[in-house]
Tryptophan halogenase (Salinisphaera hydrothermalis), 412 residues
Amino acid sequence: MNTEQTDIAVIGAGPAGATIAALLADRGWRVTVLERSHFPRFAVGESLLPRCMDALADAGMLHAVEHAGYQIKRGVTFTENDRDTSFTFDDQFTPGWSWTWQVLRADFDHRLALEAEHRGATLRFGQTVESVDFETPGAPRLSVVGDDDTRTALTARFVCDASGFARVLPRLLGLDRTGSAPPRAALFTHVADHIDAPDYQRDRIVIGIHPSQPEVWYWLIGLAGGRASVGVIGPPEWLHGLDGTPVERLQQAIGEEPRLARLLADAEFDSRVGQTENYAYDIAALHGRDYALLGNAAGFVDPIFSSGVTIALESALRAVGPIDAQLRGSDVDWDTEFEAPIRAGQRVFTSFISAWYRGTLKHVFFNPTPDTTIRTMLSSILAGYVWDTSNPYVAVPERRLETLCRLCAPAA
Ligand SMILES: Cc1cc2nc3c(=O)[nH]c(=O)nc-3n(C[C@H](O)[C@H](O)[C@H](O)COP(=O)(O)OP(=O)(O)OC[C@H]3O[C@@H](n4cnc5c(N)ncnc54)[C@H](O)[C@@H]3O)c2cc1C
């Protein structure tokens, strides 16, 4: 067993882990990132939000990804039964970025991780954190096992859990509240899309709604180089009811949505189809005496509004000040400085996600006579500006949205 010491141990080198590692290294701390896989590795979640661009710029990470040649994203198109409605990010309530990217996450995450290393963090790939002992205050001890079975006891002063869906600390500490959301499942892959339809705008994510299953929806995310990410989400029993191999089930599901079926008629399904189920969970507390939970390790509801990477980057930005201050001996109000803003952002997305699955939000999106100011406010939410409390749909999301959904509902 090797024994090692560091100031901050980061579990996971995804967007949250790489960003917090870079920011803490900037402040002069010894940072050790433990990542169980080897990068580049596949990750789902290609559609970014314009708010990510602010976060990448604030974290000094933008230059690491801006020349990667990713597909530009300028908006969102919702489609149901061959009618479309689009939101573009150039007409927003909140001043901000009018575009972002649709990225190959394997490449995006790898570039961010290399940037963290360049800024001084130590990255260890093929290293899985198995457990963390918090018994000694100020000296958490991580048990780490390498691909080659070597074992390391790493003592840190603070632990950042950025382990994504694995949520290492919530599971070890009993903070995981899985089952708080209705069960949903997903099938997804990358294809060579061969789309040449003149009405397809590659710079928008397309969200399709199943014609007869209101809880089933699809994404089509155009990537660079003629490739695309496609996926379907729905109740597990509906996805399990489709026939055949995962790729056949995904193709069958796509065949049931007229617009996507046409767009993807010539697509080559040349990559492995991924599956995930019951991906939603809530976490009881986002920080403790010697740790903080970042990104997906701090909770995940649903990918419908592409909020995951935005929350991951924001949580890293919000955590760096409190961690730095705590390690320098200052008192930190973690609830105010870290947990409250992260939960506030999650809450806005969650209220929109709930309205989406209730089936009421689509009436707002497809409203034929929309109020233009309200539409700019909704655009800003879709762009990820969920911390701008001058937007009424951020300040009081549930009540405002419920009223709007009621006003836009079709007459009974
Ligand atoms: C179907 C689906 C579609 C999605 N689409 C989008 C989208 O379009 N846009 C978007 O923004 N988000 C999307 N998301 C969410 C997005 O994938 C995540 O929110 C995002 O990846 C979170 O980043 P992270 O840094 O928190 O975690 P991750 O990117 O998951 O990184 C966590 C890292 O921790 C490592 N790790 C795990 N356990 C251990 C361990 N024990 N020891 C060491 N390392 C460990 C993992 O290998 C991984 O590399 C989607 C999610 C799903 C399920």
